[in-house]
Amino acid sequence: MKPSSAEQTHDWRLPATDNPRALAAAGLLQVMHGHSLNQVLPLLDRAVRPEDRGFLRDLLLGSCRYYQRLNAIAKMLLSKPFADSAEVLHALLIVGLYQLDGQNRAEHAAVHATVSACDDLRQGQARAVINACLRRFLRERDSLVESLADNPVTATSHPKWLVKLLDKAWGEQANTILAANNERAPLCLRVNQRRYSREQYLQLLTQAGIEARAGEFTRHSIYLEQGCDVTSLPGFADGAVSVQDEAAQLAAELLAPQAGERILDACAAPGGKSCHLLESADIDLTAVELEESRVPRIHENLARLGLSATVVCDDAAEPSRWWNGEAFDAILLDAPCSATGVIRRHPDIKMLRRREDIDQLQAIQAHILDSNWSLLKPGGRLLYATCSVLPQENSEQIGAFLNRHNDATLISLDKPWGWSCNAGRQLFPTLAGPDGFFYALLVKSAADNVVPGEQPV
């Protein structure tokens, strides 16, 4: 996932408190100012008591998930906006509304605790305003909510540009995508096939009293019925299992690595797909990641699973800086994208992403596709993947690539999952199921033997 044009990187100070509501308001304010949850959450986790960490995260992620809706309600409740110096109070009001409208917390307790958080934010003078707004919402909830129904932004809690793009691309399916984006994502595991079969690990979970079910689309996926601390799962520390969405697990199955192959995982962090490829076959894997801060996660995942790979911190789109000239048998290109298929896991995307980001991402994707294609052996295969649901980044991107490259053949993915596109296969985020993802499998052959974009029979 590429940072949006709105995302900032400067530092910010937390309020001197461990009150989860006050911290959630401070965190939400930073997202409103362009910081990502990936930047904000680590700081908040260190500031809050361990027993309150889950509650804090739900407050913040839920407030981001329904921001467009809750922000509209907050504006209706306020007779005038808060001063810029007290903008955190607007964020606190949204956090309070989420407790009443999203968490369904006990009303009196939620109002009282939110009002008390004003003191922790050093905004005690606003207690009466926050109290009045929240109590007015409880009195007028039905009429306030009804007034939002005709506006697609407030009705779906998505930015207008994204609602329009999804509606244009998918028609009636757009409503399904929008609804799924506002649900909590399930916890999905990938069983390390070098250690256990899926059936064996399901038995271990049953013995541990953990309810789980097998995934529908991949061979090693397991869904937990309830979230948990994954480090407490049987054998987790020893590499028996990893957390990975079922849609992401399709990458290794589609690329189908074979023993002895030389494989590139471009844009590899945090390393889940690299590890899955290495679990699948004895291969020579090179994992390339541009962002230095994300490289340690790759090493950590490899170490926990007892796997090895060549890890390179550099730009996969500029192979002249790191490639040794030996062509690859296969390439996994999990391209930088809008991440519109994983909004339920990263709800701040709806606040940070901008329409102009899509055009910029298309250019980046085309460049990295072209540069990585040159690294592939004749007869080699490239799997293009994104966690996007936008055709501009997916089927249209692959269609344009096929028009540029006479030596590229698109392999038909006739699978019992996803939506068949003009080029590739699209998954939508699914309730209690996989995230939104796109895949297209390309094979390289002699340029003079292939009609551009031709599919084999």
Shape: globular
CATH class of the largest domain, anyone? Alpha Beta
Instruction: Give the N-terminus to C-terminus distance in angstroms.
Output: 35 Å
Kindly report the name of the CATH homologous superfamily of the largest domain.
Vaccinia Virus protein VP39
Mean pLDDT: 93
What characterizes the major β-sheet? 9 strands, mixed
Structural class, from secondary structure content? alpha/beta
Please give the count of helices: 17
Can you walk through the features of this model?
- This protein has 457 residues and is of the alpha/beta class.
- It has helices spanning 20-32, 37-47, 53-65, 67-77, 88-101, 107-120, 127-146, 152-156, 160-170, 173-181, 198-207, 246-255, 272-280, 295-305, 349-352, 355-373, 395-404, and strands spanning 187-191, 212-214, 221-224, 241-243, 262-266, 284-289, 310-313, 328-334, 376-386, 408-411, 419-420, 425-427, 437-444.
- It contains 17 helices and 13 strands.
- It is globular.
- The strands form two sheets. Strands 5, 6, 7, 8, 9, 10, 11, 12 and 13 form a nine-stranded mixed sheet that branches. It has a four-stranded antiparallel sheet with strand order 2-3-1-4, with helices on one face.
- The chain has three domains: 20-156, N-utilizing Substance Protein B Homolog, Chain A; 187-243, 2-Layer Sandwich (Alpha-Beta Plaits); 246-449, Rossmann fold.
